[in-house]
Amino acid sequence: MTQPRIVGLTGSIGMGKSTVAAMFARAGVPVFDADAEVRALQGPGGDLLAPIEAAFPGTTGPDGVDRDRLGREVFGNAEALGRLEAIVHPAVARRRERFLLEHAGAPLVVFDIPLLFEKGGHASVDTVVVVSAPEDVQRERVLARPGMTPEKFAQILALQVPDAEKRRRADHVIDTGVPLAQTEAAVRDLAARLAR
Ligand SMILES: CC(C)(COP(=O)(O)OP(=O)(O)OC[C@H]1O[C@@H](n2cnc3c(N)ncnc32)[C@H](O)[C@@H]1O)[C@@H](O)C(=O)NCCC(=O)NCCS
Ligand SMILES: Nc1ncnc2c1ncn2[C@@H]1O[C@H](COP(=O)(O)OP(=O)(O)OP(=O)(O)O)[C@@H](O)[C@H]1O
């Protein structure tokens, strides 16, 4: 059986990755959502609660990981973030392998991976799609989120490959600074071309 073509979907914070991933799913393309996997692994009863509690005492409870609290410990502290990533990323990679086996017959699959460039994942996908919007649109979207502050936004941006570089390295750029219907049409068109 031929392997599906693997699309790596990425973009900086607030650029619209999750929205565009949902558009690919509506176009019939199976989507692996790395963030959702992290949330499941860190949620109530999740496999990673014990190792995270051991490494970051007091950050887990009956509701799973307290993400705000853990975020405060790791964003802005490279050593702590590295320790968390060493717990989380191998578990996500195992789930991604399983997803690929489950969808071995599909012509096209999407890996929605926020840190595709940052962690070198672009080398193991066939095509890179970057979602991008003007900086002021990104900023407005992110600061509108509950719990977000300009300081946290700046810390997260500093950890991410800049948008301009992502766009330069992309095989395809999806513009999300336009009306949703226009983005959705672009995604449908790209999905059809890539599935051929
Ligand atoms: C620290 C945690 C609990 C904070 O959760 P919270 O819900 O507050 O934030 P969220 O996950 O929505 O992330 C907010 C923004 O930060 C970015 N971000 C998250 N982790 C990282 C990281 N390791 N490096 C750079 N940016 C990151 C996200 O892409 C997003 O743009 C969580 O981000 C986490 O467990 N991160 C480590 C795992 C990871 O690398 N996840 C992202 C890729 S799968
Ligand atoms: N044309 C568009 N394409 C995508 N999103 C849009 C568009 N116009 C407006 N939006 C809005 O922008 C927001 C994008 O948020 P989304 O959660 O998809 O970003 P994200 O890149 O996944 O974020 P993060 O990296 O922080 O997880 C949504 O509220 C969405 O409705």
From TrEMBL:
Keyword Methyltransferase: no
Catalytic activities: 3'-dephospho-CoA + ATP = ADP + CoA + H(+)
Pathway(s) where this gene product acts: Cofactor biosynthesis; coenzyme A biosynthesis; CoA from (R)-pantothenate: step 5/5
The organism's place on the tree of life at top rank: Bacteria
Keywords: ATP-binding, Coenzyme A biosynthesis, Cytoplasm, Kinase, Nucleotide-binding, Transferase
InterPro entries: Depp_CoAkinase (IPR001977), P-loop_NTPase (IPR027417)
Coiled coil: none
Binding, ATP: G14, M15, G16, K17, S18, T19
Listed GO MF terms: dephospho-CoA kinase activity
This protein's record includes keyword Kinase: yes
Subcellular location: Cytoplasm
EC number: 2.7.1.24
Function: Catalyzes the phosphorylation of the 3'-hydroxyl group of dephosphocoenzyme A to form coenzyme A.
Similarity field: Belongs to the CoaE family.
Name listed for the protein in its UniProt record: Dephospho-CoA kinase
Organism: Pelagerythrobacter marinus
Taxonomic lineage of the native organism: Bacteria, Pseudomonadati, Pseudomonadota, Alphaproteobacteria, Sphingomonadales
